[in-house]
Amino acid sequence: MKGPVYRGPALPGFAAKAAWSLPSGGTSAPGVLDLRSTLLLAKDAQGHYASTLSEGMLFDSDAAAPLTLEFRDVKTGALRKALKVRAKTVEAVSWRDGAPAVAVTSSTTSESDGLTEAKTTITATLYGADGSELAKVPSYEHGTLLDGYRVEKAGESLRLTPVGGGPSRTVTCTGTAASCDYDAETGAADASVAHAPLISGGYYAGFLNASNYQTEPEQITLSELATGKQVWSTADAKIPEGVELDDKGHPESEEKRILRIADGKVLVGWKAGVSLSSGSWVHAWYDLKSGALISSYKGPAEVLFSPAGDLAARDVVKFEDFPGTAVWQTADGKQLWEQQDGEHVLDPVRFTADGSVLYGVTDDESATDTGLAVDTRTKKVLAKNLPEESIPSVDTATGYGYVGTEAGLFVFAPA
């Protein structure tokens, strides 16, 4: 398919020429929702593509507006389906087993009868990556749909209710004055000092002693979504070497977080000591079936994983000085490289699908363009002075990358 020619900087890890492109039809870059091998765009009545407003939000309007949703093949740009809707918002969500989906919302308002207040109700219609309708969700709130479950506050805890029927799950949240919350932006559940993905890999998180008023250490549990059965807990996990212990044999710091769940294993970050800063952490892999400690190594508080999860980079901790990134193998903690004094601090943004290139932004205040691409294995700089908008997004299902500019959307095959 023909479209505008890409005239921006070369993008390491991707082909020199775009596999396909689309004109913006307006003055801003076309927005995209990545639905794994499908890219979703929204065109207004004037033929202009909507711009991405924020991570996962393609369109947001005070009143419903006519849109044409275009479901396009990532590799070819072929239009798989065009769907005409009236939408207040268009938002990326996840369906059962983590399948990508999109929520298109509309609103209805009941007028006041003179005593009661007027009430507006939001309904979301969910569509799969092929454009087929999955379900309708009444009384929908932004960011409250995860893996096909509605995330709702239940007292001081959380309730997971499957769309379309089925047993609900209540997140364990024990302890005097305990309160457990959900962060829709990150998909994480939070207790007092413990954090974990609310739903990941068919499991949901829970928290024990989730309060400052408890004398016993705060713990994280994992339970099966399918059965509600608890299958693992940090309370039963062997504490890895490098974690400081008190006189009762408990970790000096109760801070811990689940970093990743994959291939029947869970990666847990344990804070090594009681320093007020992020300090040093220990990452430990456990087998979910046997509970056995598989491996452990020193690691940071915040981590950016490659799409396959075999590599990771040190990420920024909010409100703390960042010394720069490092890259390591997640299986054994073997460090590939670390930034040194005198280098511009690289804040990692994303890996290519195969993990060969790491894109990030530097703190070089003298430069207008701060994007950078480095070889993941060697730290060799592959591209510098990239405008931040030229840092490609990555469709992990195909390895294709894409960037949006005022000229249009450009999609590149992996190199």
**Shape type:** globular
Mean pLDDT: 93
Q: What is the CA-atom radius of gyration, in angstroms?
A: 23 Å
* Main sheet attributes: strand count, strand direction, barrel closure: 7 strands, antiparallel
Poorly predicted segments: none
Tell me the distance between the termini: 20 Å
* Beta content: over 45%
Which percent bin holds the helix content?
under 10%
Total helical segments: 0
Summary of the model, kept short:
The chain is mainly β. Helices cover 0% and strands 47% of the residues.
Topology:
Blueprint: E1 20-23, E2 33-34, E3 38-44, E4 57-73, E5 79-94, E6 100-110, E7 119-128, E8 133-137, E9 145-146, E10 149-154, E11 157-162, E12 169-170, E13 181-183, E14 188-190, E15 194-197, E16 199-200, E17 203-208, E18 219-224, E19 230-233, E20 256-262, E21 265-271, E22 281-287, E23 293-299, E24 303-305, E25 311-314, E26 326-329, E27 335-338, E28 346-351, E29 357-362, E30 371-375, E31 381-386, E32 393-394, E33 401-405, E34 408-412
Parallel strand pairs: 15-20
Antiparallel strand pairs: 1-34, 2-3, 3-4, 4-5, 5-6, 6-7, 7-8, 9-10, 10-11, 11-12, 13-14, 14-15, 16-17, 17-18, 18-19, 20-21, 21-22, 22-23, 24-25, 25-26, 26-27, 28-29, 29-30, 30-31, 32-33, 33-34
Describe this structure in words.
It is a single chain. By secondary structure, the protein is mainly beta. 0% of the residues lie in helices and 47% in strands. It has no helices and 34 strands. The chain has strands at residues 20-23, 33-34, 38-44, 57-73, 79-94, 100-110, 119-128, 133-137, 145-146, 149-154, 157-162, 169-170, 181-183, 188-190, 194-197, 199-200, 203-208, 219-224, 230-233, 256-262, 265-271, 281-287, 293-299, 303-305, 311-314, 326-329, 335-338, 346-351, 357-362, 371-375, 381-386, 393-394, 401-405, 408-412. A seven-stranded antiparallel beta sheet has the order 2-3-4-5-6-7-8, with no helix packed on it. Strands 13-14-15-20-21-22-23 form a seven-stranded mixed beta sheet, with no helix packed on it. The protein has a four-stranded antiparallel beta sheet with strand order 1-34-33-32, with no helix packed on it. β10 (149-154) and β11 form a beta hairpin. The protein is globular. 39% of the residues are buried. The mean pLDDT is 93.
